Each structure stands twice: as structure tokens, then as C-alpha cells.
């Protein structure tokens, strides 16, 4: 299937490893030029080298996505290097584990900054460019916890659910005047990443997904054939989440 995105340009945040890197790989294989971002310059450089070896056109821009100035830097860097911007994949590291009644107010504020505010900032920064081209795709990588909250991940449950509510509302706002700009969230369940090893929901007994497969699903949501998928929460969890 021709996904219709060869020649497009994407920004993927938190793309040094895990699902962010896998998504950048999926996009690159479809001919998308990718700007990848991460906090650690060394790890980001390794990710860029991996993408380059796989034939990708890649630009690595290190920076903390929590810093208010970083979204503008990323968008400007993509346009300066590639001449345009068509896709944003807003990803961020997961907050610490903790139960709802035990987490501190400071931890809640940090989680909202990391998993909600940072995504909204880069999406809003990219929208003028999308409107100019009358085409754009936004994917926010959240978690299946927005559908089925995880008791030990209160911070993730609440901050990512807030982002999902914002995305659902923004999709409705955009659909009327900009039908070729879509905004969705993709909700991973357990995948074989370092993050899963950190939170350890049962270890090896849990069936885990392949990050590269996840990246292909995210890539499809960025495609031309996915133009009627808007304001959706696409769960990628192998059927493990119990919800209707």
C-alpha cells in the first residue's frame, strides 16, 4: 500500500529509543524525513546513526521538551533543514510509578508538564505550518491507561487522560475548517522497551509487543489513507486491555 507520505517531513520527540525511535523508523521507511529529539545528546546521536544506516534522512536536535522554548526550536529547525513540516509525533517519557493517594502535588505538576503541556506546546507550534500547506498529521503517544487506568501509574493515568481530552476537543475544532489535518492519540500497551522493564507489570509473564510493529501502526495514522481517522484513540495492546 502506498501511504502517500514519501517526501513529507516529521518531528518525533522522545525519539532516542523505545516507541519514539520505532515510530521514526516506521516513518523513515516510507520516505519521510525525520527530525528526532531527545534530552541526552549521546543517546540521540546513536539513534540518528541507526536511522542513517537504515537509509533515513534524519536530523537530530537535542533538547528538553519540557523547556518552553524547545517546541519552537524543533519546528524552526525542521523547516530550515527540510523546507517544510507535515507530521508531529508528540512523545514523552513516562512519569514515575505511584498510587493516586500517595503521589505529591509536585509530582502531579511535573507529570502534567511532561505528558500534557509539552505535547500541546509542540502541536500548537506546528499548526500554522500545517494550515499553510492545508495538510498535517499529529499523533500523540499516550498509553492504554487512558482507557483502563493502571493502579500503580496514577501520574500517567491522569496526565495522559488530560491530553486525550484536549486532543479529542482539538480534532473537532480542526475538522470543520481543516479536514486534511488530523490529530489522534495512539495508546500502547506493554511493549518490549526499557520503560516496561522499569514499571514491571508482572515481568516475563506478560505478552509484549514489538516496538517496530507499533511504529508501523503509528506511521499508518500519519498516512494519506488515514485521512478520515481523526480524534481517535487507537489502542495497540494485543487485546490485553479489558474495556468496551
Task: Summarize the helices and strands and which ones pair or pack.
Blueprint: E1 9-12, H1 18-29, E2 33-38, H2 41-53, E3 58-62, H3 70-82, E4 87-90, H4 105-133, E5 136-141, H5 154-177, E6 181-188, H6 194-199, H7 211-221, E7 233-236
Parallel strand pairs: 1-2, 1-4, 2-3, 4-5, 5-6, 6-7
Helix pairs in contact: 1-7, 3-4, 4-5
Give a short overview.
By secondary structure, the protein is an alpha/beta fold. Helix content is about 45%, strand content about 15%. The protein has a single domain (about 10-235), classed as NAD(P)-binding Rossmann-like Domain (Rossmann fold).
Structural class: alpha/beta
- What count of structural domains? 1
Give the total of beta strands.
7
| Average pLDDT level | 92
Q: How much strand content do the residues show? A: 15-25%
Basic shape: globular
Cross-sheet strand order for the largest sheet: 3-2-1-4-5-6-7
Indicate the CATH architecture: 3-Layer(aba) Sandwich
How far is the N terminus from the C terminus? 30 Å
Structural write-up:
The chain is of the alpha/beta class. The protein has seven helices and seven strands; from the N terminus they run E-H-E-H-E-H-E-H-E-H-E-H-H-E. It has a seven-stranded parallel sheet, with helices on both faces. The chain is globular and about 50 Å long. The two termini are 30 Å apart. The model has no long low-confidence stretch (mean pLDDT 92). It is 44% helix and 15% strand. The longest helix has 29 residues, at 105-133. It has one domain (9-236): 3-Layer(aba) Sandwich (Rossmann fold), CATH 3.40.50.
Amino acid at each position: 500500500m502506498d501511504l502517500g507520505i514519501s517526501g513529507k517531513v516529521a518531528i518525533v520527540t522522545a525519539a532516542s529509543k523505545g516507541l519514539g525511535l520505532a515510530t521514526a523508523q516506521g516513518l523513515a521507511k516510507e520516505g519521510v524525513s525525520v527530525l528526532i529529539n531527545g534530552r541526552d545528546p549521546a543517546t540521540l546521536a546513536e539513534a540518528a546513526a541507526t536511522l542513517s544506516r537504515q537509509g533515513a534522512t534524519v536530523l537530530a536536535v537535542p533538547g528538553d521538551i519540557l523547556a518552553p522554548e524547545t517546541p519552537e526550536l524543533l519546528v524552526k529547525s525542521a523547516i530550515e533543514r527540510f523546507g517544510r513540516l507535515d507530521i508531529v509525533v508528540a512523545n514523552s517519557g513516562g512519569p514515575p510509578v505511584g498510587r493516586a493517594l500517595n503521589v505529591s502535588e509536585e509530582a502531579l505538576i511535573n507529570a502534567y508538564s511532561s505528558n500534557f503541556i509539552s505535547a500541546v506546546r509542540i502541536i500548537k507550534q506546528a499548526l500554522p505550518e500545517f494550515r499553510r500547506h492545508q495538510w498535517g498529521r499529529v499523533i500523540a503517544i499516550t498509553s492504554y491507561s487512558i482507557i483502563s487506568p493502571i493502579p500503580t501509574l496514577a501520574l500517567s493515568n491522569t496526565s495522559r487522560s488530560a491530553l486525550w481530552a484536549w486532543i479529542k476537543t482539538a480534532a473537532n475544532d480542526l475538522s470543520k475548517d481543516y479536514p486534511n489535518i488530523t490529530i489522534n492519540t495512539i495508546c500502547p500497551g506493554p511493549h518490549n522497551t526499557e520503560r516496561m522493564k522499569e514499571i514491571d507489570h508482572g515481568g516475563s509473564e506478560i505478552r509484549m509487543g514489538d516496538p517496530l510493529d507499533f511504529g508501523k501502526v503509528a506511521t499508518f495514522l500519519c498516512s494519506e489513507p488515514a485521512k478520515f481517522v481523526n480524534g481517535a484513540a487507537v489502542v495497540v495492546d494485543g487485546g490485553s486491555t479489558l474495556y468496551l
